[in-house]
Amino acid sequence: MSLLELEDVDGYYGNSHVLFDLSLSIDTNEVVALLGRNGAGKTSTLRTITGVIPRREGHIRFRGRDISRLSVDKISNMGIKLVPEERRIFPTLTVQENLQVARDSAGGSDPRPIEEMYEIFPILDDLRESRGQNLSGGEQQMLSVARALVQNPDVLLLDEPTEGLAPVIVEDLSETLEEVVERDVTVLITEQNVEFALDLSERAYIIESGENAWDGSIEELRQREDLLEQYLSVGAAESD
């Protein structure tokens, strides 16, 4: 049985139909990439999983239980945590205070020690007393991931973690996330930086206009230049 499963899910922003019979599954301790162009429905998928966007058809199951009609808070307390593209850290709180607030609001999970977050993210250890608004984009992203991780999630949803980051910061973030995914955390990652996502993941789904377009192993996807070019524009960019 999959840890998290979407079956023929239709999602809507108000009256706008954004997901069409979308299906995917993630096993425990697996890292899966959700790929597609801007506007393909990647963020909408994550928001539908977390209950922000209501699904009207289909099923979303977590540990075999249908969570389609549960509130955002209940889904979060069950162990599904979203790291949004906007990061949403508290700008006037320090790094330590941001982590403490996240840990105190862990809900139904048994939170991890804050000191463990500093072991995973050494750069944050040096910034304990720095306010969120004074951090660089990369530091804010690491704090955003640490805030989710300290709550000890069963599933970590990462929405475009490298968005707006310089290449050298992306490299540091990649190394840090590689350590994160080795700590028995199940991850679903959306990412425009395809190579970044492929390096972290074991399997991938490609969606187009809110629909399933392809799924398979990372090894298979790397060999399918036609798919990379058709749905992700990677092949075309590399051949220029």
What does this structure look like?
- This protein has 11 helices and 10 strands.
- The N and C termini lie far apart (44 Å).
- It is of the alpha/beta class.
- It has one domain: P-loop containing nucleotide triphosphate hydrolases (Rossmann fold), CATH 3.40.50.300.
- The protein is globular.
- The longest helix has 15 residues, at 167-181.
- The strands form 2 sheets. A 6-stranded mixed beta sheet has the order 6-7-8-3-9-10, sandwiched between helices. A 4-stranded antiparallel beta sheet has the order 2-1-4-5, covered by helices on one side.
What's the gist of this structure?
With 240 residues, the protein is of the alpha/beta class. 37% of the residues lie in helices and 26% in strands. The protein has helices at residues 42-49, 72-77, 95-104, 114-120, 122-125, 137-149, 167-181, 194-200, 218-222, 225-232, 234-239, and strands at residues 4-13, 16-26, 31-35, 55-62, 65-66, 80-83, 155-159, 186-190, 203-208, 211-217.
Strand-helix topology:
Elements: E1 4-13, E2 16-26, E3 31-35, H1 42-49, E4 55-62, E5 65-66, H2 72-77, E6 80-83, H3 95-104, H4 114-120, H5 122-125, H6 137-149, E7 155-159, H7 167-181, E8 186-190, H8 194-200, E9 203-208, E10 211-217, H9 218-222, H10 225-232, H11 234-239
Parallel strand pairs: 3-8, 3-9, 6-7, 7-8
Antiparallel strand pairs: 1-2, 1-4, 4-5, 9-10
Helix pairs in contact: 3-6, 6-7
